[in-house]
Design brief:
CATH class of the largest domain: Mainly Alpha
CATH architecture of the largest domain: Up-down Bundle
Radius of gyration: 20 Å
Bound molecules: nicotinamide-adenine-dinucleotide, zinc ion
Number of domains: 2
Number of strands: 10
Helix content: 40-55%
Strand content: 15-25%
Mean pLDDT: 94
Shape: globular
CATH topology of the largest domain: Dehydroquinate synthase-like, alpha domain
């Protein structure tokens, strides 16, 4: 049976069929169900179908709007109709939405059955599938209901990325960039010499996964070190929320790219990062991500920032790079500093 809080095995292979074969070589289940969304059912499932022992498939609609209790209910109903017992396995084949929501369904069905994550977006491979956070959106709040629970294994294949829409790939790439800036100057120097289309995903994913895994193992409940993963996210989330509310959604990674430019500028103003390092980060993000307008009324952005779960009282706290390859967290930042940083972001693109 699963030891729910152990770090799972995370395996990366170019061939997804190898991942499946290796997993089933050491364990058997009474029943196996593959949970997919309409896109992963079409593009990813055919790559693994033949390698999975006898199984059923459940397919749900795609998109963040599906990350709800209603969809969980549909999944639980189908699992019940399929008479899945506690010795069954669910293979979750999809991006972060399916990983968070499907994992939550598996972790709660009959008090928890085994599940395997097979992330199919870059965001899910490099970020969402590591760390055991599962859940759904509720009453308009993201990830409002959920649990910490680890899968039996996480099986990652860059082969799935070939069918991923380009904008999704670029969005997930922001998390890979973030991992390099806060943890590893050498990998950053390799990454920034190539554009998104030419990256060596197998190597970069191994890097991202190792790094995030190490951070999560040291600080599973985000009391300290894990907060460094929020670099780019304080400002990024605020801009993302603003666009979401205005009905003009931008992608998560696009928002985080804005956040990384602005927060690198704040790190420079606090003498944590040299001007040349800030410019290096900014130059790469500028060629990789489109310019996005920051609203002239900055109060809207501050109001979103003040709602950040990571703040203490009315203080805005950020994770900032300390040179390239290192970061510190809980750095207090003033409105004036944020204002200048947003001006800096705007000036970079003019
Ligand atoms: N648990 C965590 O630690 C964590 C961390 C970061 C983000 N998240 C969550 O992840 C979610 C976002 O994940 P996402 O960006 O992967 O979105 P997603 O799961 O919605 O996938 C994006 C789109 O790509 C499609 N798709 C997926 N794989 C494909 C493939 N290989 N080929 C073609 N199409 C494919 C999907 O059907 C969907 O339409 C958010 O809900 C966020 O809260 C969780
Ligand atoms: Zn993120």
């Amino acid at each position: 049976m699963v030891r729910r809080f152990d770090m799972p095995q995370i395996v990366i292979r170019q061939q997804p069929t190898e991942l499946i074969a290796e997993f089933f070589a050491r364990i058997t289940y009474s029943q196996v169900v593959v949970l997919a969304d309409e896109n992963t059912a079409q593009f990813c499932y055919p790559l693994i179908q033949a390698a999975i022992p006898e199984h059923q498939r459940i397919t749900i609609k795609a998109g963040e709007e599906q990350k709800t209790l209603e969809t969980c209910q549909q999944v639980w109903e189908q699992l019940t109709n399929l008479k899945l017992d506690r010795h069954s396995l669910i293979i979750i084949l999809g991006g972060g939405v399916l990983g968070d929501m499907g994992g939550f369904c598996a972790a709660t069905y009959k008090r928890g059955i085994d599940f395997v994550l097979m992330p199919t977006t870059l965001l899910a491979q490099a970020d969402a599938s590591v760390g055991g956070k599962l859940g759904i959106d509720f009453m308009g709040y993201k990830n409002h209901i959920g649990v910490f629970c680890e899968p039996q294994a996480t099986l990652i294949s860059p082969a799935f990325l070939k069918t991923l829409p380009e904008r999704e790939l670029r969005s997930g790439f922001a998390e890979v960039i973030k991992h390099c800036i806060i943890s590893d100057k050498v990998t950053w120097d390799t990454l920034r010499k190539k554009n998104v289309a030419d990256q060596d995903w197998e190597t970069l994913l191994a890097h991202s996964v190792d790094f995030k895994r190490g951070v999560v193992a040291t600080d599973p409940k985000e009391k300290g070190l894990r907060k460094i993963l929020n670099f780019g996210h304080t400002i990024g989330h605020a801009v993302e929320s603003y666009y979401l509310q205005s009905g003009n959604r931008i992608f998560h990674g696009e928002a985080i790219a804005i956040g990384m430019v602005a927060e690198a500028a704040i790190a420079t103003s606090k003498n944590l990062l040299k001007n040349s390092e800030r410019d290096e980060i900014t130059a790469y993000l500028k060629i990789t991500y489109p310019h996005i307008t920051i609203p002239a009324n900055r109060k809207i952005i501050f109001d979103f920032m003040l709602q950040d779960k990571k703040n203490k009282g009315n203080k805005i706290l950020m994770a900032l790079p300390e040179g390239i390859g290192k970061a510190r967290w809980d750095v207090e930042v003033t409105r004036e500093e944020i204002n200048s940083a947003l001006d800096f972001y705007q000036s970079v693109y003019t």
